[in-house]
Design the sequence.
């Protein structure tokens, strides 16, 4: 089942919804042309009203329009254009200032106001797009899983298939996967909102590796593939949140397995690098250069359009754990993802780490 969610609606409440959707269907260039026209109209009306009536607030209309429906950098250009047009209109008026630098100061204040509004609007749009993308991925996956569970349940209800252990196992796995996806969505939503509560405990690196391997040893993504623990794996103690760490390492391992062809080998390991506990996952396939540029961005995926949350969640949760995540990939050596975390967890407030 494919879900489609509209782009976030423009925050200009007085703009009719049909006009907002009309602009969404236009090219950025056409929106920029419309913005130029509106900017010219506002500037002309500002010139006609003179210096006695302040008209600077209306310059926001074309700025907001192009920022939301075109590109943020276009909005910044319009900020400078609007400030300069206001300065020209002010210079052509009969207004007399006690100092010739006062108009420059006023223009600078208006420019800062325009730039601030553009920045906040761009961040709002980015946050809305990120939230909607997370919702799309979550609803797509959970509906597919629950749909499968319901299908098997209907077959059992109508006595179309006998109740075998295999069918019961499939129902259990589907329900278990649903709970896992719901919990993963909850964790990501909390991380997005800086509301994660960390439970920092002492963790044994080798036991952590074995736990992750055991979880995916018999997983469907491991079928016809070899999963091994690197001989370079070291055993040591470090401090972190085991639940979040297992999600990061699980994503690393699952992504590697999904990207590996049948008969391929995926290895996982860990070692201590001074005051860092470093975990890595390696597979033999290389990531294309175009995809490498987008790794760790929210919508990227090397597998399908609905699985872009994997590497993004690695980065987001690793940031929450005060760690760092990186990767290397080429045709000769394959792909290696590495996540490193401080051996001694930094001081926290309410068990939640500071975020940059």
Sequence:
């Amino acid at each position: 089942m494919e879900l489609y969610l509209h782009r976030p609606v423009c925050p200009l409440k007085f703009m009719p919804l049909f006009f907002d959707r009309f602009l969404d269907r236009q090219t950025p260039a056409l929106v920029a042309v419309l913005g130029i026209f509106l900017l010219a109209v506002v500037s002309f009306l500002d010139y006609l009203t003179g210096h006695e009536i302040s008209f600077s607030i209306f310059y926001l209309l074309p700025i907001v329009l192009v920022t939301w429906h075109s590109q943020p950098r276009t909005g910044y250009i319009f900020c400078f254009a609007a400030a300069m047009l206001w300065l020209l209109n002010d210079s052509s008026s009969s207004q007399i200032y006690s100092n010739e630098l006062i108009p420059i100061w006023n223009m600078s204040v208006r420019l800062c106001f325009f730039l601030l509004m553009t920045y906040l609007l761009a961040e709002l749009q980015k946050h809305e797009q990120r939230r909607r993308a997370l919702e799309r991925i979550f609803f797509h996956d959970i509906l597919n899983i629950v749909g499968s569970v319901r299908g098997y349940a209907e077959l059992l209800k109508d006595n179309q298939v006998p109740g075998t252990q295999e069918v019961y196992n499939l129902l259990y796995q589907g329900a278990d996967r649903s709970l896992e996806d719901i919990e993963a969505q909850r964790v990501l939503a909390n991380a997005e909102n800086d509301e994660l509560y960390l439970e920092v405990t002492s963790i044994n690196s080798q036991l952590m590796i074995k736990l992750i391997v055991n979880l995916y040893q018999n997983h469907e993504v491991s079928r016809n593939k070899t999963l091994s623990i690197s001989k370079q794996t070291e055993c040591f103690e470090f401090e972190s949140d085991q639940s979040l760490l297992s999600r990061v390492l699980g994503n690393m391992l699952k992504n590697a397995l999904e990207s590996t062809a049948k008969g391929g080998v995926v290895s996982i390991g860990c070692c201590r690098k001074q005051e860092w506990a470093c975990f890595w996952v390696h597979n033999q396939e290389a990531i294309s250069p175009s995809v490498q540029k987008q790794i760790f961005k929210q919508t990227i995926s090397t597998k399908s359009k609905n699985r872009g949350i994997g590497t993004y969640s690695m980065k987001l949760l690793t940031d929450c754990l005060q760690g760092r995540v990186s990767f290397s990939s080429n045709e000769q050596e394959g792909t290696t993802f590495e996540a490193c975390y401080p051996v001694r967890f930094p001081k926290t407030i309410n068990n939640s780490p500071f975020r940059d």
